[in-house]
């Protein structure tokens, strides 16, 4: 086990061993306007945007039904209400901690989870925005947020742009993990192409900021080979396992959660894989089905319990300095 990583002081979850869910979303509306929406509407008109959103919802309803999940509620209650609902989820599953990678805005998320010791939050703002590096520093040092979440395929420029180096420098200096989504975004009906779609686009950044840790979610979300290449080349790149990993279904070769766990385990080892569920909305709350599926897959992949404990809690505790 790596230096300083302990899971023996942690409580056992409802699944019988400690769990830190490294990737959830705090369910309140995003306060920043969607730059992609504004650009699309300006160029092609409101009507086509509405059609695109309706198509997206059609896809969403397909897969929520496939998992037998209740569709997310439209009405999003106040942040304080959502925090209380989430605390009940954390308690009922006896999670060690849960990480919200987004939540309205940095101040909203930090305010909502303030005082809840098992809820942690990440900063999430446009790294290309003026003052983004200073805002990251403020969110970490003043708001107490624990990392930085970026969605690469919605950015207004390339993720390896030198313009963003001051942002990565802050993360490196403060020792907080950077979670960067690559690959298809927003599921079916979402974004399938963008200049930042490919995780390998992070290569020069990861090589430049060797003391920063970059975590790429959803096993690369359609780009598992590219993420494996990136992680093989850069020891400071980790992977999270979160979400429905629906993209497995349309890969042109057979894949399963079990084979993904096995391949990543064999390539990058147990210390760079972090469990997450991508749980977000109510009435579903904690996506226990994803917990069940991943736990079964890890066992089927032959991963021993000591390494399972790293994946489900130890690695997150190390990165988050818990
Ligand atoms: Zn997510």
Task: Provide tags for this entry.
alpha/beta; 9% strand; 8 strands; 3-stranded parallel β-sheet; 322 residues; binds zinc ion; globular; 5-stranded parallel β-sheet
Your description of this structure?
- The radius of gyration is 19 Å and the shape is globular.
- With 322 residues, the chain is of the alpha/beta class.
- It starts with 19 loop residues before the first strand and ends with a helix.
- The strands form two sheets. Strands 4-5-6-7-8 form a five-stranded parallel β-sheet.
- Helix 9 crosses helix 10.
- Helix 9 links the parallel strand 7 and strand 8.
- It has eleven helices and eight strands.
- The mean pLDDT is 95.
- The structure holds zinc ion.
SSE topology:
Elements: E1 20-24, H1 35-44, H2 46-66, H3 79-92, E2 97-100, H4 106-113, E3 119-121, H5 132-141, E4 148-151, H6 165-174, E5 178-181, H7 203-208, E6 214-216, H8 224-233, E7 237-240, H9 257-268, E8 273-274, H10 288-300, H11 305-320
Parallel strand pairs: 1-2, 2-3, 4-5, 5-6, 6-7, 7-8
The chain binds zinc ion.
Uncertain segments are none
Ligand inventory: zinc ion
What characteristic shape results from the CA principal axes? globular
| Termini gap | 16 Å
DSSP, total strands: 8
Assembly state of the chains shown: single chain
Give the percentage of residues in beta strands: 5-15%
SSE succession:
EHHHEHEHEHEHEHEHEHH
The Rg value, from CA coordinates, equals: 19 Å
The tally of helices reads 11
Largest sheet: 5 strands, parallel
Helix share bin: 40-55%
Mean pLDDT: 95
Identify the strand order in the major beta sheet: 4-5-6-7-8
Category by helix and strand content? alpha/beta
């Amino acid at each position: 086990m790596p230096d300083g990583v302990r899971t023996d002081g942690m409580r056992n979850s409802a699944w019988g061993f400690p769990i830190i869910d490294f990737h959830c979303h705090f369910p309140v509306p995003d306060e920043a306007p969607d730059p992609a929406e504004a650009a699309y509407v300006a160029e092609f008109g409101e009507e086509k945007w509405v059609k695109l959103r309706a198509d997206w919802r059609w896809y969403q309803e397909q897969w929520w039904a496939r998992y037998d999940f209740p569709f997310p509620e439209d009405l999003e209650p106040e942040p304080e209400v959502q925090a209380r609902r989430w605390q009940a989820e954390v308690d009922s599953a006896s999670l060690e901690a849960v990480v919200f990678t987004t939540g309205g805005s940095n101040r909203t998320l930090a305010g909502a989870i303030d005082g809840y010791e098992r809820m942690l939050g990440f900063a999430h703002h446009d790294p290309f925005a003026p003052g983004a590096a200073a805002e990251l520093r403020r969110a970490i040092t003043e708001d107490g947020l624990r990392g930085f979440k970026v969605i690469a395929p919605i950015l207004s420029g390339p993720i390896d742009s030198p313009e963003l180096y001051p942002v990565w420098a802050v993360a490196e200096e403060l020792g907080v993990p950077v979670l960067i989504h690559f690959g298809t975004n927003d599921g079916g009906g979402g974004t399938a192409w963008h200049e930042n779609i490919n995780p390998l686009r992070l290569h020069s950044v990861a090589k430049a900021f060797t003391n920063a840790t970059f975590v790429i979610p959803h096993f690369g979300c359609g780009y598992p080979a590219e993420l494996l290449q990136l992680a093989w080349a850069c020891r400071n790149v980790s992977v999270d396992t979160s979400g429905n990993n629906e993209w497995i279904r349309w890969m042109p070769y057979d894949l399963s959660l079990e084979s993904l766990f096995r391949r990543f385990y064999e390539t990058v080892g147990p210390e760079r894989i972090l469990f997450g569920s991508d749980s977000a909305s109510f009435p579903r709350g904690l996506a226990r089905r994803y917990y069940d599926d991943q736990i079964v897959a890890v066992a089927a992949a032959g991963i021993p319990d000591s390494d399972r404990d790293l994946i489900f809690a130890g690695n997150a505790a190390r990165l988050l300095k818990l």
